[in-house]
Amino acid sequence: MNLPMSFVIAQAAPAAGAAPAANPLMTFLPLILLFVVFYFLMIRPQMKRQKEHRNMVSALSKGDEVVTNGGIAGRVDEVGESFITVEIAPNVKIKLQKGAVQQVLPKGTLKSS
């Protein structure tokens, strides 16, 4: 079955011209969905951790037992505006930024170790 080339071109041309215009919303939908997934899986949990850390640091008081980001454990001796003094051994005190506190330990943890 030999079809003339003009017949094949004539049949293909209307199909190419009849393509409907793409909806702009459908074009950006995958990008929007990706952003929503990133927000709920990465951004939101990170913001929650930052808020919990800010609350923990603002609630520090004298006598709290803490662990710093560097792994140093000690008892808070003095609390200032942006710095704290931590006693890590008898008569050995270091001054740290409040943000360097990673965790507040339960009372009595340092005596048991």
From TrEMBL:
Pfam families: YajC. It is a single-pass membrane protein. It is found in: Cell membrane. InterPro entries: Preprotein_translocase_YajC (IPR003849). It comes from the Bacteria. The chain crosses the membrane at residues 28-44. Keywords: Cell membrane, Membrane, Protein transport, Translocation, Transmembrane, Transmembrane helix, Transport. NCBIfam families: yajC (TIGR00739). Belongs to the YajC family. This is Sec translocon accessory complex subunit YajC. The lineage of its organism: Bacteria, Pseudomonadati, Pseudomonadota, Gammaproteobacteria, Lysobacterales. The gene is yajC.
